[in-house]
Amino acid sequence: MSAVAGVGPVGEGAALLQLRDLHAWYGESHILHGLDLDVAAGEFVTLMGRNGSGRSTTLKAIMGIVGRRAGSISFDGRELTKLPPHRIARLGIGYCPEERGVFASLNVDENLTLPPQTGEGGMSLEDIHAMFPNLAEHRRSPGSRLSGGEQQMLAMARILRTGARLLLLDEITEGLAPVIVEQLGKAIGSLRDLGFTILLAEQNFRFAAPLADRHCIIEHGRVVETVPKAELDANMAKLHDYLGV
After folding, report:
1. Domains of the chain by start residue, with CATH
2. pTM above the 0.85 mark?
């Protein structure tokens, strides 16, 4: 599989994404309450917490698809808070929503080639088919014929075509069979090894634990704890209190 142009290895480089005192609202509901977070170039970070803690809202706030946001969101040194979602995406941020958003009437390859390329280094269809064999097998099948797991693979694969440097993945294992979750884990591990920067909102701790470099625990719209992968064993009691794992 080819390397990704312009993407460095894990742990290399300064913070690609910086969130400072981030607030977000849906209507009158105030969800994020001054969240701070850094993600380095090439790093894999998870956002974990109980339902309603603000995991998914953090990703949506980065993309500008919440009702209102305040504070600072900086990507590669550029402030995003005044930009509309389509401008943010074209800076090199790929968002895989929890709802998947697969076009039911288009086949797999049409879904993959529909989004515009936002930068150099987008993965080829051949590389995507190699990473997701199920998609290669059903490349001429309409989105409506795919299983839930295959739709999730397609939603992930679609942003890899764009040349995005930062991948925002929202609850990608929810409701999926263990065999599909395992396949997604292998694919994400490959993306990490290729040097993609990944921010994953995830409730499935056992899925995220072996993959991420750091785990950020969110409560009431703030990051309250950050646990590096190397310190997971020493912090399991604390994580159990936060997550109920």
Report:
1. 15-243 (3.40.50.300)
2. yes
